[in-house]
Amino acid sequence: MSTADAVSPDSDRPWADPGAWPVAPGVHRIPLPLPNDGLRAVNVYAVETDEPDGSRGITLVDGGWAIESAAELLASSLAGIGAGVADVRRVLVTHVHRDHYTQAVALRRLVGAEVRLGRGEETSLRMSIAGSEVVRDEMVAHLRDAGAEQAAVAWEQAPPGPTADTDFWELPDRWLEPDEQVRLGDRVLDAVATPGHTAGHVVFADTAEGLLFAGDHVLPTITPSIGFEPSTRFGALGDFMGSLARVRELPDLRLLPAHGPLAPSAHARVDELLAHHDERLALSLEPLEVGGEGLTAREVAAHLPWTRHARAYSSLDPFNSALAAMETRAHLEVLVARGQAVVERGGADGSDPLGAAPARYRRV
């Protein structure tokens, strides 16, 4: 069964089916559309709150993508629980990708909702505000470092993205600091820093109710992309695995993901994700040789199976081949950090780390 068809226990229907599905007392899951995306939807969570002025309010965990169909479905879903868009007082955003952040900004413009985002997302957000060309040039440089020249050219030549990619990049009202507590009436959410998928990703743990609003950090049926963000960086996979270990140290909470059905155990899924990346690390090491000129990340990616269907790298479309090359580079960098491989980047002296020549990896 594909992720899109997976049934969620809160609805007993495919998880992306529209509605406001009850997760726990005062908490509803609202899937919002992602047109032309294989994931089909993003889960936005509506949390009912008693506001300081005595009124009833709604706090959203993630906002969705700022497109008309998502705005309409959010309004109708909230109406199904006796609320309206005007009741949304704040949006707690797990990370700065457009399908989580841009509608939060739209809601601020529409009804004055407060937007909160992890401090670690500031660099990427400011790059997005600066414009798509800044983001494009950064990604192209990193794709060339990975040896993915074809993907880099496709990225350079791609037409501008949807209007939401430029019109709704604004700074939040408040930055969430690492491990900050968010108080929503009697409910307390711990904003746990979980860098990896992005530099400033956070999850929200409601330990009293046994809930983990996991964003894209822990997904129930797929593995999230690693470090695929405007401020592309080295070390993202090491950060991600460390963040998984941190979630493993929390009480075992019910998994409320941004994409896919609810799952009963965050710990069980964390264990599966860690095992997956251990397997990918081993597979990434196999093609490397001792000595020689070494292999680029793209060349290593060509040796690996992709997706649950074990597709060849050569069969991937430009976007997914870029993701695959960058993910492979992330695994190779972990192997370097562990002393199992060495890298030559920008010349033998290590200068010009993102120069014209791609990085090459060799086994130790």
From TrEMBL:
Highest taxon in the source lineage: Bacteria
Domain Metallo-beta-lactamase per the UniProt entry, residue ranges: 41-259
A UniProt-annotated Pfam family: Lactamase_B
Segments passing through the bilayer: none
InterPro entries in UniProt: Metallo-B-lactamas, RibonucZ/Hydroxyglut_hydro, Sec-metab_biosynth-thioest, WH-like_DNA-bd_sf
Designated name of the protein: MBL fold metallo-hydrolase
